[in-house]
Amino acid sequence: MSKTYFLLAMIGCIIVTISSCAKEKEETSDDSTSTSTSSSVTCTAVSSCSSTASGSFYVDNVTLSGVYDFFHIYGIRGVGGVDNSTGCVDNSSLITGRGPTGTQSLITQEVITSSTSFATKAVYYSDTACSSEIASVVQGYSDVSVGDNVSGLTTSVGDSTYPSSASKVTYKESCMELKGTTDVGTSYLNTLLSSSFVTTGETHTCQDSGDTKYALWAADNISTLSRLYTETSSTAYPTDWSSDTDTTTKM
Question: Smallest Cα–Cα separation from 69: which of 133, 132, 124, 10?
């Protein structure tokens, strides 16, 4: 999702921006863990914030289900340092500047979690095999509503190509789950949130703002390749694709 609250790195950069329970978010196209928050963020606990694939919904006449990865396309194209089976990325040119200090690999994905919800997640690791976790973040979205289709969209923005039609989609920021597995990860998350509630080794599952997001979503299936395109706004439906549009590829 275009700079959607919690990290997600580039295919743009998916940087997940964290800010829950009292915050102001801002999205960027670099890193997909991009965040702007209030000066004091606290956590109102909720029971769960799922990032497990389940269910499906239709967007622009295509069924969305499962996991959509921000870096999978690089592996498909033969770029080294991308594990096509897990989404683990250790290619330094793709991950430099993303995540806590010492990040050597990461996984950044969007997951369809039901017929009315999805989540973005990012996990950072200190080794190149995505096994020694530093920190993790999940951003959950609920009340997904797919509306009318729009057509006549720009199909080329910079070096990127997009579908000419898409569906209008709304959803709400419902929850976040974060964990500082190491002290470095904890410090990173607290700095990102301008908070102090994250403690090392503990998973914090928090209520989010409930703010509504407005988006254009489109998907296409090219042979065995399925891609998802999302353009998001906090105030009104976007009218076209832009340089901030996120593109993910189904695992």
Answer: 10
